[in-house]
Design a protein that fits this description.
39% of the residues lie in helices and 39% in strands. The chain is built from 2 helices and 4 strands. It has a 4-stranded antiparallel sheet with strand order 2-3-1-4, with helices on one face. A hairpin with a 6-residue loop joins strand 2 (39-44) and strand 3 (51-60). It is elongated. The N and C termini lie close together (5 Å).
Length: 95
């Protein structure tokens, strides 16, 4: 079993309040979950209106597939134009 995990920091320039931010993050999370069937959640920076950190996890049978899915997720989030990716880290675990 292979577990791929990514931590993605986002900048939300359009968000003027926490309410604006929550709406944008909710859309990013829902669209990503629907498109890829991965686990996604906001994991940090909940109290900053223009910053968010989301975590993404995927379980697969091989290393390449996990890397591919996480790469596509990152591209997808950037292509939504709801947020700008400022930093991303991935880790692949073999269990």
């Amino acid at each position: 079993m292979v577990v791929g995990a990514a931590t993605i920091e986002l900048y939300l320039p359009e968000a003027q309040s926490l309410k604006d931010k929550r709406g944008a993050v909710r859309r990013v999370v829902a669209r990503t979950r629907t498109a890829f069937g991965v686990s996604v959640a906001e994991v940090d920076h909940q109290d900053f209106p223009q910053s968010a950190t989301i975590g993404v996890a995927v379980v697969t049978s091989n290393h390449r597939l996990a890397e591919s899915i996480l790469g596509k997720v990152l591209d997808f989030i950037e292509d939504t134009h709801l947020a700008q990716v400022t930093r991303a880290e991935t880790e692949i675990l073999h269990l």
